[in-house]
Amino acid sequence: MADEFPRCALNIPPEVLSDWLSNLLDVAEQMRIGRHVASCAACQATIARYRRIHTDVRDIPIVDRGEEIWQRLHPHLARRQRSQVGLRMVGRAVSATLIVALLGGFVALLTLHRNSTTQTAATSVSCNGSLTGQGIFVARSDGSVQAFDGATGVQRWRTASGVSAGVVVAPIVADGMILVTSSTGTITALHASDGRTAWTLPTVAGNYQPVQPIEASSVAVIDHEAAGWFVAVINVQSGAAVWRTAVTPAPVFVLSKLVAIAATPQMVVTLGLGTTAGKAAYEVFAFAAATGTAMWQSSVQTTGENVADVNLLATPEVVAVLLDRLTSFAPATGNVQWTQSLAGTTSQALAEAGDFLLAQGVNQLAAFRLADGSTAWKVQDTATPLITDGKFVYVSGIRGYEMSALDVQTGNVRWQSRQFGLLNPLTQGCGTVIGAFPGTVQAFSAANGMQQWALTPPPNTFSATAVSVNGAAIIALPSLSSTSSIGVYDQHTGKAHWVATGNTMEDGMLPFAVGAFT
Predict the structure, then answer these.
(1) The whole model's pTM is what?
(2) Dist. CA 150–CA 106, nearest whole Å
(3) Under DSSP, is residue 435 helix (H, G, I), strand (E, B) or coil?
(4) E strand or H helix at 91, and its extent?
(5) What is the pLDDT of residues 12-50, one digit of tens each?
(6) Helices H, strands E: what count in the chain?
(7) Quick one: DSSP state of residue 505?
(8) Which end of the chain is more exposed for a tag (fewer CB within 10 A), N or C?
(9) Strand 496-502 relative to strand 484-490: parallel, antiparallel, unpaired?
């Protein structure tokens, strides 16, 4: 019999790809598999099959009929005074009925999952809160970078000031290096193991932001000099340019909206800004990630005259730009596939979820079908930000509730938290959604919206950020007038594994990244 899955050149088991697709691997393994998937047609085909299976299986209703069966049987059992043996047999029958119902929906998936390989997947335990071997790297506004052991909270190292002055974006962890961007116009690479400086490059003040790694050991960046604007890929170990390509025709300005996507071939996409007849004019530029060859350039249509905010999304399925309207481009050619208007004139948030593009305009969230741009649903009175796990989208601002979970397919409300106010969703994973509002951080069950725990930061805490890793919630709480902190919490109970505190103004916005020390 032919294998159910195509063969991968590296023999990566389908089990590992399934865990990667569900974001269940540790950070380093997620990145490694992601880089491989970008160039492996076999793995891409396997993942596409898993997505189809997930779509077919996820909505199969599993009804617990145990209580109903018991209520019907109990009067007869009482009247006839069944023996204890008889009762045990009935109980076993009810249990068997429930077990069959629960397992039925997963039989096809497990069969496909196992038939194609006899290999054992060497994956890490997921959702157990373990951060063993992981570091938390914090860029502080005094210019220092601090590294904590993710499992214990012990400070592994801290650099002198001057490395990251003015930084407002999180560091990038790549190939055993920490890349820190400064708004004063430098990017510095530190060894993750001990914080030693490897190299520093001058760049565009306030505009230079590396993106996620290209292949195993390089990142894409934007640079500017008298000759114009450039997109480059640099080696994170040496700082040397792998390639450097001019953005042409020359724009007035290149935005720091720079995205690397795992398409075939892998691409780097950015936006250029110019003016035409007094109106903002945007151009999308795509480059081959391996060589820097310009692949295509496309114009973004806008009805506004001074559209300053813009949102760029690039995935293997679509390149999309959100201004006062949403424009979809084909990743391979840059051809405009469709456009859609949104309420308001200011870009808000943009995300992909399965077969849909989610676009947040002013007070309106809409879902458009990737294939043709048709509207799947719209919901009014929503606010940014939004996060999605592919099945649900979590937003704030619907009818006064703090946070709501909407079905991605229909826009129907799955649940709403019961307190009043705007609770901004921050992160989700392992069945928990975490959000923040000035004065509180709250966690809810992703299944039903029940509050799991709440955390009350010190007064004047602002701009809380959070990341979910293996069932652990890493939460940064910067404060202007109290002690700022960053800590690791159990994602389901809110219990602190460890919390590190620092001075107030020194800590700034506490941008941080998670990754391996080596």
Answers:
(1) 0.73
(2) 35
(3) strand
(4) helix 84-115
(5) 888 788 777 665 665 556 667 766 776 677 887 787 777
(6) 5, 36
(7) G
(8) N
(9) antiparallel
